[in-house]
Amino acid sequence: MFKDQTVKLGICPIGWTNDDMPELGSWNTFEQCVSEMALAGYEGTEVGNKYPKDRQELKKALELRQMQIASAWFSSFLTTLPFKETEEAFIKHRDFLYEMGAKVIVVSEQGRSIQKEDVPLFEAKPHFTEEEWELLAEGLNLLGELAHEKGMEIVFHHHMGTGVQTKEEIDKLMNITDEDKVSLLFDTGHLYLSGEDPLEVLKLHLPRIKHVHLKDVRGDVAAQVRQQKTAFLDGVKEGMFTVPGNGDIEFGPIFETLANFDYRGWVLVEAEQDPAKANPLEQAIIARNYIRETAKI
Ligand SMILES: O=C1C[C@@H](O)[C@H](O)[C@@H](O)C1=O
Ligand SMILES: [Co+2]
Fold this sequence. Notes:
Its EC number is 4.2.1.44. Its cofactor is Co(2+); Mn(2+); glutathione. Keywords: Cobalt, Lyase, Manganese. One of its GO terms (molecular function) is manganese ion binding. The protein is of the alpha/beta class. The protein has a single domain (about 5-295), classed as Divalent-metal-dependent TIM barrel enzymes (TIM Barrel), CATH 3.20.20. The chain is about 40% helix and about 15% strand. The protein has 11 helices and 11 strands. The protein has helices at about 30-40, 55-65, 85-100, 130-150, 165-175, 190-195, 200-205, 220-225, 230-240, 250-260, 280-295; strands at about 5-10, 45, 70, 75, 105-110, 155, 180-185, 210-215, 215, 240, 265-270. The protein has a 7-stranded parallel sheet. Helix 3 packs parallel to helix 4 (about 130-150) and helix 7 runs parallel beside helix 10. The structure holds the ligand O=C1C[C@@H](O)[C@H](O)[C@@H](O)C1=O and cobalt (II) ion (CO). Cobalt (II) ion binds near residues 157, 187, 213 and 270.
């Protein structure tokens, strides 16, 4: 399917430790996390809260395991705070990722996001006003320009509980931003959970997709989260997300579409679960085997 070396396969630390809920996997050290990633057959990762802040220390630990940094999450507040505040934080983040050799910067708009709030996930997402859409588009175009200064790209992360969650909202954002400055991150789990067809969104925005998160959804748990008005982080603890091959999403056509388009970039398994219930190494191996069989990577 994928031609050799066109796609790089990584895994995010969120199955070992969760930045939004530090109590999950608090016993997992950074060394154990990256060693298990390498052992399971992954060549890259994103950055988590346990990773060393010292850049040389981080580089060395990754080199020892032949691992690379693919990217790291950045929260923007373009709709709610003066641009300067996002800009200052973004430049620090960009420079760190540049030094680590990453080519893309994951950006998620957290203005009015409910992803950390104790409110019903399926009922309380924000809906941006026209003024907020304009602020978001202008700000993202500027962040894209800042990324270009270092030969990097921003990849926008649509996300449950934020103003850019649905297909309609993703379409709108892609329409009102500059295609040369703002690329898209395709996260299978967030689209499926939102009730969208991930394959449809993928086909529509393929040329702008420069980063992929592979997350699967347990449909029965998701239905419970909707019915019981559960919050996003509680839904995570209850197991609404899992690794590819373990849930309801059919990944075959997704891999085929990416491969036929000659997608070049990272695909990263990103499945936040409670590590006390879902052993991270075991989950990483399940996903690795499934991807080998289904995507031939
Ligand atoms: O990319 C991501 C990073 C996480 O912090 C987030 O909550 C998760 O759902 C995700 O997709
Ligand atoms: Co993601």
